[in-house]
Amino acid sequence: MAGAVNGHNPIPVVDLSPFQSGISEKSKEAAQSFTNACHRLGFVYITGHGVPEELLDEAFAWSKKLYELDHEEKMKAPHPTAPMPHRGYSPPGLEKIAEYADNHPGDAAVEKKDRPVKKVGEFKESYEIGSESNPNQPNIWLPEDVLPGFRDFMTNFYWELNKPARLILQAVCQGLDLTKAEADNLLRIHSGHNNQLRLLHYPPVAADLLENQVTARMPAHRDWSAFTMLFQDDCGGLELEDPQEPGRFLMAAPIPGTLVLNIGDMLQRLSNDTFQSANHRVQLPPFEDRFAGEKRITRARYSIPYFVAPDDTAVVESFPSRVDEAHPAKYEPVAFQDYGALVAKHLYDQAPATTAVH
Question: Measured between alpha carbons, how far is residue 115 from residues 103, 104, 130, 281, 343 in Å?
Fold first, then answer.
């Protein structure tokens, strides 16, 4: 889907700093603003997330050091050709996003297994990191002498990002007015051990290759986690499909000091469609100063997404408080590992034995 692009940015900005000091009238207002954005768009900018700018600068510096390594060095921590485990380094073209005929992977990934699928190769490279205490997804690290200090920093950074993730889960609980039992369960099944930290690098590429769909930076897709927190550089190119006008994409231009949050399939299911799983993509940078030369070579783009996911064995079903006679349950309960396995098999050439975490 090429899709028209609207340069105006209607994506709201929500300050979650009130949650740093517990529940209050201000946190209730923030939770309501957050919920409204997630209902309407499934996309929101977050300020007051608590991640220090200096720590993010250091993380991006490590990412650049990683991608400056020779290919042979990066391949000392290779991602398997199958999705399991979803860890280590993936060179350009290894991962392919599945674009479904109806462009809605959500519940269809589980309930419509024989749908037409188009796989689009991506001109990006990535490195996947998880909890060191997740036996189903062991990390694949570079040897220490290849990039000294990288493992220690990223292991700590992974858990630093789980702190704002917990704040966001609290905003979900308050914004949806969950019962205490529902809120406790939501926090319990998101222990943090099944999250995923990803370092992304989009190398420079001629603009016409993207415009003619010879290759892609990141085709349109939805995430199948609960939600994703994205930190991006100032290159630009992230776009959100407008749920009210399919085929029309809205630019999610970088805003300093914010993270971009998009809702994934699991929160759409848990909320019984109160929240929208956001269809999004990465295209050409929207600004002409991001290109160079007659061939309009794009500038490199770096981003750091952090996928917040339920634990593997967690059964995801709509909150009872979101279901009534006027709003019947739209989804059957599903174990996250089963849902993930069906989606992940389209990412790589070989199907997984068990699930992989997005």
Answer: 10, 11, 31, 21, 12
When pLDDT is cut at 50, 70 and 90, the band that residue 1 belongs to is: very low
Q: How far apart are CA 282 and CA 303, in angstroms?
A: 11
Mean pLDDT in residue range 170-187: 97
Which of 1, 4, 7 lies closest to 251 in space, CA to CA?
7
Residue 74 contacts residue 91 (beta carbons within 8 Å): yes
Among 127, 123, 303, CA closest to 228: 303
Give φ, ψ of 184 to 5 degrees: -60, -40
First and final C-alpha spacing in the chain: 22
CA distance 61 to 344: 30
Q: For the segment 270-299, what is each residue's pLDDT rounded down to a tens digit?
A: 999 999 999 999 988 877 777 778 878 888
Report how far residue 240's alpha carbon sits from residue 345's, in angstroms, rounded to the nearest whole number. 24
Helix/strand/coil (H, E, C) string of 66-129? HHHCCHHHHCCCECCCCCCCCCEEECCCCCEEEEECCCCCCCHHHHCCCCCEEEEEECCEEEEE
Q: What single letter denotes the amino acid at residue 101? A: A
Task: Assess contact for 97 and 217: CB atoms under 8 A.
Answer: no
- Give the pair of three-digit tokens for residue 170: 């609290």
- Cβ pair 235, 301 in contact under 8 A: yes
Give one word for 45, left, alpha or beta, with left for phi > 0 and alpha for psi -120 to 50.
beta
Query: For 307-337, what is each residue's pLDDT tens digit?
Result: 999 999 999 999 999 999 999 999 999 999 9
Alpha helices by DSSP H, listed for the chain, are: 25-40, 53-68, 71-74, 108-111, 150-175, 180-189, 207-211, 265-270, 336-344
Q: How far is CA 3 from CA 10, 41, 60, in A?
A: 17, 17, 31
User: d(Cα 64, Cα 138) in Å, to the nearest integer?
Assistant: 24
Q: Which residues contact 262 (CB under 8 A, 6 or more apart)?
A: 42, 43, 223, 227, 228, 230, 240, 278, 280
Q: Which residue has the tokens 């997630």?
A: 38
What is the C-alpha to C-alpha distance for residues 56 and 197, in angstroms, rounded to an integer? 13
